[in-house]
Amino acid sequence: LCLLQASRLEDLRVKLENEGLVNISYVVVNHQGAYSQRKFHLLKESVSDFITVYQQDEQQADVWTTLNGSKDDFLIYDRCGRLVYHLGLPYSFLSFQYVEESIKIAYCESKCGNCSYTEPDIDGVCENITRSAEEKLVEIELKPSGHHSHHHHGQGQGQRHRHHHHH
Asked: How many folded domains does the chain comprise?
């Protein structure tokens, strides 16, 4: 994860927490190489203490190989530790909304079946998320294209090209 991605992950964590998505564990896995190890402290400074930065040892089996992924991937697990989404580039760029949407789906929907750790009080939070997503879509459909409203939050055209990826 590059430093820009790390600070964007911190922003996303805060945004989701403000929307009521709490008790999510975030882990950044740093690359094994010497260059990445030297940058470890910078990576750690890019995020708060709420995001764990894990430094792989050069001698251990590479985490990314074990997970069938590569270093810029996002793996999103549900409360029972089941893999719900595995996003690679370019879908893992945090300037897009794929990671955020995937976290919300893993949080709110039982994609992998029921989980014994489902929290009883998430209904309200998830209802709001669904409602605001629907309102955004209506807003986009009603708006003539070419008029960038303030809802884009510097996302460029990310908002207009909302790919619905219900796997």
From this structure: 1
